[in-house]
Amino acid sequence: MRLRVETSAPATVEQAFASRVEQSVREQACRESGALSYDVLIEPASDGGARVQVQRVMAPQVPDYMRKFVGESIAIGQVEQWSPPGPTGVRTAVVTVTVKGQPASMSGSITLSPTPDGSTELVTGEVKVAIPLLGRKIEPEIVKVIEAALRIEQRVAQDWVRQNR
Asked: Residue 151: which of 2, 8, 1 has the closest Cα?
């Protein structure tokens, strides 16, 4: 199932990128998303890009019929591999989300683009749940959870940019 989340911010691409690779921002987003535990690892690259790894354990926010499949907690791994800025100021990342012990994942991209008023962040991806017959029913629920987490991350990042201009 396709995922697409787009937001705009009154921040430059570089300010938005700085927030995405800021330890405190990613940790605050984990806390605000209700993570039971989390670990954030950010590795700057010599070319100006970065690798961001976020591991979270979450209480499942799924309908009751899905709870027997996912259990009492879900371990989610998110990896973003950020590129250096392109010639037009655009930054991109390849993003993967995996659910430990579950046949669910997402692969996609993040694009930070300049606009006259700041920047936009576009997250696109493909969510897959490899369970015959039930996968198609579960995918929309997984998309909702990922969208909610992305909106929290974006809001926390925008707050950080406002405070650190």
From this structure: 8
